[in-house]
Each structure stands twice: as C-alpha cells, then as structure tokens.
Amino acid sequence: MRIFLTKLEKQKPSGIDKKIGKWEKEVWKEVDCLSCANCCKTMTPTYTVRDLKRISKHFGMTVTEFKKKWLHRERGGDRDWMNKSTPCQFLNKKDNKCSIYAIRPADCAGFPHLAKDFQDFVHIHHQNVDSCPATFALVEKMMADFQK
C-alpha cells in the first residue's frame, strides 16, 4: 500500500479528487470509528489557538492552565501543542466516545482527512494507513480502481 501511495504522490492521476469523494462515502458506510478509536488510542491531535481557547473555556480554565495540565510542546518540527500522553485524556475507554466531541480539536474533527485534496494529504494517508481502518479502506478502493 505504501508503495502504491508513493507512486500516486509522485504522479497524481487525473480525476482522483472527484473519485475520492465517491470512495469516502463508501468508506463511511463500511467503517465504524467507535469500534476502533485507534486514532485516539495511539495518536495525538495538534491544537490550534482556536482549539485551545474553546476547550479551555469549556473547562473553566485559562489556556495556560489547560496546556499545563494536558499538553506539551512538540519537539522540533512546528512545535505544535499536543497531548502529553496517549490514549487521549478525553477518550472514554468504555465506549470509545470523545468526552469533548462537540468542541474537539479541529485536527480530530477532520481526521482521517479522506476528502481533502489528495496531493496535500497523501503524506497523511501514508502515516494513517496502518492504524486507521477508514484510511486503509480508502487506499484499497484506490488500488482496485487504478489497477483495472
């Protein structure tokens, strides 16, 4: 799968973005995120300034208090704010539901970023294909279509 994604990354097939929209709808009929929650169990979102303000307000905390309690700065890279630990502190382990779903970080709301512009997100699919059943299913659909 990774080799296939690398090939697509180097040479974007025409019409792939339109096809991805169709495949994404099919994927969500097949995949139930609550049966998995691997994203919340093994990854951490990055928090935008808007996320920090919204979520800390929800908890009646300052942004600084929220960061100190639950987050750390990423080493190197963009130095994003990320969860201190995994699984996510907001994941209810009994039912795999997010305790702050209505106000969750934008990164979580968009995950696994299936319907985004393919060229901008193919590197994300590379990262997620092993841990996200929805990404895996999307890439399977791509492979089946492009190997016809």
Descriptive account of the structure:
This protein has 148 residues and is mainly α. The chain has a domain at 44-102. Helix content is 52%, strand content 8%. The protein is built from eight helices and five strands, in the order H-H-H-E-H-H-E-E-E-E-H-H-H. It has helices spanning 2-10, 16-30, 38-42, 49-58, 63-70, 106-110, 118-128, 133-146, and strands spanning 46-47, 71-73, 81-83, 91-92, 97-98. The strands form two sheets. Strands 1-3-2 form a three-stranded antiparallel sheet. A hairpin with a 7-residue loop joins strand 2 and strand 3 (81-83). Helix 2 (16-30) crosses helix 8. The longest helix is centred in the N-terminal third of the chain and has 15 residues, at 16-30. The two termini are 16 Å apart.
